[in-house]
């Protein structure tokens, strides 16, 4: 089983991104990829890695501004929207990612059982129905288009790093 794990660089005035810290700490036998917070460049970088590595599963991580639970995202929405723009200064206004594609894509992975496993292990985790309309959702849409066995994991900015690592390790073990 070839697993690709991705994270994002800092954005929006933050000096760090918790997803990057978790990526750095992963010791499992996976391919790792750090993505730019750019609506245009992130999918390009992801697609290059998919071509090279041909993953069976993609686990993408990103930082969430708020919340006290790690969110396993069920859906990616076919839309980009942002008030402040990405790291390239691009500000999409309710723009479709791909006009020919459905309005939402759903992961083929068993998101509810995966979440239940984390909760049973005492890890603060929940299933979420929206990764927002910013770059995390954009990359999840790309990942699901290429590999339906993809999962996006949103990690709140102030989450304990050890807990976040345990959730990602649990997902890697179960996949
Ligand atoms: N979080 C942002 C983009 C990069 C990241 O780590 C998001 O939630 O879309």
What's the helix and strand layout?
Elements: E1 3-8, H1 18-25, E2 31-35, H2 41-53, E3 57-64, E4 70-73, E5 75-77, E6 104-106, H3 111-120, E7 125-128, H4 135-146, E8 150-156, H5 161-174
Parallel strand pairs: 1-2, 1-3, 3-8, 4-7
Antiparallel strand pairs: 4-8, 5-6
Bound molecules: pyroglutamic acid.
Pyroglutamic acid is lined by residues 8, 11, 17, 19, 37, 62-64, 132, 134-136.
Please give a quick description of this structure.
The protein has 175 residues and is an alpha/beta fold. It has five helices and eight strands; from the N terminus they run E-H-E-H-E-E-E-E-H-E-H-E-H.
Write out the strand line-up for the largest beta sheet, numbering strands in chain order.
Answer: 2-1-3-8-4-7
Beta strand %: 15-25%
Global Rg = 15 Å
General shape: globular
Provide a descriptive summary of the structure in words.
The chain has 175 residues and is an alpha/beta fold. It contains 5 helices and 8 strands, in the order βαβαββββαβαβα. Strands 2-1-3-8-4-7 form a 6-stranded mixed β-sheet, sandwiched between helices. α1 links the parallel β1 and β2. α1 packs across α5. The mean pLDDT is 97. Bound molecules: pyroglutamic acid.
């Amino acid at each position: 089983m070839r697993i690709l794990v991705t994270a994002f660089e800092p954005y929006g005035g933050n000096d760090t991104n918790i997803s990057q810290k978790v990526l750095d700490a992963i010791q499992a036998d996976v391919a790792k990829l750090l993505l730019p917070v750019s609506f245009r460049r992130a999918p390009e970088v992801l697609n290059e890695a998919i071509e090279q590595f041909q993953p069976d599963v993609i686990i993408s991580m990103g930082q969430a501004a708020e919340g006290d639970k790690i969110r396993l995202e069920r859906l990616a929405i076919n839309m980009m929207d942002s008030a402040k723009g990405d790291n390239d200064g691009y500000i999409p206004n309710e723009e479709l990612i791909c006009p020919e594609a459905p309005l939402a894509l759903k992961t083929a992975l068993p998101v509810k059982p995966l979440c239940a496993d984390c909760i049973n292990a005492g890890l603060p985790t929940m299933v979420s129905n929206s990764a927002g309309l910013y770059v995390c959702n954009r990359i999840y849409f790309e990942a699901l288009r290429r590999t339906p066995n993809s999962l996006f994991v949103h990690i709140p900015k102030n989450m304990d790093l050890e807990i976040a690592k345990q959730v990602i390790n649990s997902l890697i073990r179960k996949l």
